Amino acid sequence: xxxxxxEMLTIQWAEKRGIIQNSTPWAQAQxxxxxxxxxxxxILKNDRDALADAYGDILVTLIVGCACADLDLVECxxxxxxxxxxxxxxxNEQGVFVKQ
Length: 100
Fold this sequence. Notes:
Layout: H1 3-16, H2 19-22, H3 25-45, H4 48-68, H5 73-84, E1 89-91, E2 97-99
Antiparallel strand pairs: 1-2
Helix pairs in contact: 1-4, 3-4
């Protein structure tokens, strides 16, 4: 299934449950933070299944958060890519990209 189809189904799922109509970007950001915590736990435990679950859950919260804010996640993603595509920098000792 394509990303766009899965994104649409996720929005429909959230609408059917009244999440988009009654939640807020703030509340969804809090859900994202909870899922990020689960991601860090999965990384520490080296639990591949939990890692995949956490990444998926984070994406769901981002999609729903964008819908609550009347934004399109893909358009946000495209905008971020346009901002970074020509960025130069280096990878530090911890494996983090540092922009110049």
